[in-house]
Design brief:
There is one protein chain. Helix 3 packs across helix 13 and helix 5 packs across helix 7. With 298 residues, the protein is an all-alpha fold. It has 13 helices and no strands.
């Protein structure tokens, strides 16, 4: 039998937690559990209520539905026009998100890679855009849109969404581009590539984690936006045809005081809520990787 070496190190023992650490962890887990209940329970209750009848919602709000009322979703989709509002929202969000990511990544690349006079001023301007309260800009923004004849237009709201999202996206992507290796761009420049080619063929693919993260954040923010469309899309005589989901949901909620179709309202809430939930669940790991990519590469 082979002899056991005498100098084999003993396995390390984890230090015992002090009472203060145990109490601190218990409090932290209790707070997280409370937060989980506060966030998840209303969402699950809304989904459960969307499958009930109006009588069940009022007389047995905490019980499971006796029968699944899928007609509530058909009524919300067609009669309450949530399907139309969903199309309007996608018409606005898809180009707004694309322009936001494209323009902010180009600005961030220049700010991160080039030294020029006035760069710090530009960075401070974007930083100011992040901290400027949105409601202070609503009145002047309304008159600007009215003067340029962009009120009640999809392309006008798209431009406002882009301007609204540009500051934070540029600020984040600037720090992300700073973590990418400069040697790749220098090698491409020596090989005869232009700055246009270097950006689109070298650095933009490397910035995919940051772009995905900002795309998800901007999607969630623009999807749930209410103040801007409610200010800039309300003057047409056929204004309801231009509503986005947040406006349509508020309009539907106001109608329930006269129609009493609460099951249809909960179905509409679920229709609005499910896409954001699905996007977050699918891309949750991408968000974490994108937020920590700069720290890991730096």
């Amino acid at each position: 039998m082979a002899a056991i070496p005498q100098n084999t190190p003993a396995p390390l023992k984890k230090p015992a937690l002090s009472p203060v650490d145990v109490i601190g962890k218990a409090v932290m887990y209790a707070v997280l559990a409370m937060w989980f209940v506060m966030v998840v329970f209303p969402m699950l209750w809304s989904i459960m209520s969307s499958l009930k009848s109006d009588q069940e919602i009022f007389f047995s709000p905490w019980a499971m539905p006796t029968a699944l009322m899928w007609d509530n979703f058909a009524r919300a989709w067609i009669k309450a026009r949530m399907g139309e509002y969903l199309v309007n929202t996608l018409i606005i969000i898809i180009p707004a998100l694309t322009l936001t990511l494209l323009l902010s990544s180009m600005v961030a690349y220049v700010l991160a890679r080039f030294e020029f006079r006035g760069r710090a001023i530009i960075q401070y301007v974007f930083l100011l855009g992040m901290i400027f309260p949105l409601f202070l800009a609503l009145v002047p923004l309304y008159f600007v849109m009215q003067t340029t004849r962009l009120l009640d237009t999809y392309h006008g709201l798209i431009l406002v969404y882009v301007a609204y999202s540009l500051s934070f996206t540029t600020f984040f992507l600037t720090n992300f581009f700073k973590t990418l290796p400069k040697e790749l761009g220098e090698a491409a420049l020596i090989d005869g590539a232009s700055q246009f080619d270097i950006f689109f063929q070298v650095y933009l693919p490397l910035a995919r984690p940051g772009l995905i993260t900002m795309g998800i954040f901007n999607f969630l923010g623009q999807w749930n936006q209410y103040i801007l469309p409610n200010t800039l899309m309300i003057t047409n005589t056929d204004t309801e045809t231009h509503y986005v989901l947040s406006q349509g949901l508020y309009y539907l909620q106001a109608q329930q005081f006269y129609q009493n179709d609460w099951s249809g309202l909960f179905a509409a809430v679920t229709i609005v809520m499910i896409p954001t939930l699905v996007v977050y669940l699918i891309f949750n790991d991408r968000i974490e990787k994108g937020m920590t990519a700069g720290a890991l590469k730096g």
